[in-house]
């Protein structure tokens, strides 16, 4: 049985990447030197990462995650609780042949929180750890869970989405398109708003956190608060743009930073790290300003 055939059962959670410009299908996710597993923001789909393969090179297989309630899984009931969602993603990963080392995790906004929780689940199960965790436009986990935005009316939620540009082409496609996305968006928001961080040892993998100059949701100090969540190296990169900078021109800088990290990872073997006891993250020293009603 070929690697491609082995990957067939993963198609629901990890749909085949869109062919990059110029044709081709990109590297095989099983045999590529590196896998970058990408998690969507609240209400988002794998289309967010549709051309990342083209930008990130042939040595890294871009593997977007498609949770229930969106895309070809539109008829499935979306999760509205972070813990079972993270467990389900971990199940899918460990049965999909994608846990071949090395791999990295990337998540934007809610996707960053989900990527972190998935990494914690995999560690608890004794699975191989990610080589790197990238968190983008997200407050640290202990800063989640104090909003109730999923209770906004449809009209209020539409206006918030339009104001933040969170659904990409949705503004041009009209209200009917937005309405199809509202149920999964509400479920995702509910999952974030119910989330309560439980103290755990920090992850061992290096972490890079991306903040943006005009992001009213994940202010720089709230993104910086991810630092105690790893016992490895931590780097925060500050980019221009708003909360959804990965859908706008600043994403070129984001992709350039990612490409450099990925190229280094496929060129240099991972450093050996001795196990050691590590402190748990302290409570937030500063609360981030929350000026936008849609907080994830």
UniProtKB/TrEMBL annotation:
It comes from the Bacteria. One of its GO terms (biological process) is lipid biosynthetic process. Residues 37-227 form the Thioesterase TesA-like domain. Keywords: Hydrolase. InterPro entries: AB_hydrolase_fold (IPR029058), TEII (IPR012223), TesA-like (IPR020802), Thioesterase (IPR001031). SMART domains: PKS_TE. Residues 266-296 are annotated as: Disordered. Belongs to the thioesterase family. This is Thioesterase. It comes from Streptomyces naganishii JCM 4654.
């Amino acid at each position: 049985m070929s690697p491609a055939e082995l990957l067939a059962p993963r198609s629901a959670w990890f749909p085949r990447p869109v062919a990059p410009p110029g044709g081709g299908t990109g590297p095989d996710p099983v045999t590529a030197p590196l896998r970058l597993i990408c998690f969507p923001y609240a209400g988002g789909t794998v289309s967010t990462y549709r051309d990342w393969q083209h930008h990130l090179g042939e040595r890294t297989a871009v593997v977007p995650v498609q949770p229930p309630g969106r895309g070809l899984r539109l008829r499935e009931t979306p999760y509205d609780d972070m813990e079972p969602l993270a467990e389900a993603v971990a199940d899918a990963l460990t049965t999909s042949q994608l846990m071949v080392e090395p791999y990295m995790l990337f998540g934007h906004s809610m996707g960053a929180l989900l990527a972190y929780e998935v990494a914690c689940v995999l560690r608890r199960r004794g699975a191989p750890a990610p080589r790197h965790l990238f968190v983008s436009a997200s407050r640290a986990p202990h800063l989640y869970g104090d909003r109730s935005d999923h209770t906004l009316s449809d009209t209020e939620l539409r206006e918030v989405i339009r104001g933040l540009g969170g659904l990409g082409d949705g503004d041009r496609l009209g209200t009917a398109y937005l309405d199809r996305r509202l149920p999964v968006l509400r479920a995702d928001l509910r999952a974030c708003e119910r989330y309560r961080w439980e103290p755990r040892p920090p992850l061992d993998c290096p972490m890079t956190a991306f903040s943006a100059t005009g992001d009213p949701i994940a202010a720089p100090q709230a993104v910086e608060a991810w630092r105690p969540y790893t016992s490895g190296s931590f780097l925060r990169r500050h980019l221009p743009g708003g909360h959804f900078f990965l859908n706008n021109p600043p994403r070129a800088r984001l992709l350039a930073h990612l490409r450099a990290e990925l190229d280094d990872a496929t060129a240099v073997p991972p450093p050996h790290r001795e196990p050691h006891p590590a402190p748990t993250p302290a409570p937030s020293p500063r609360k981030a300003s929350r000026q936008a009603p849609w907080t994830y």
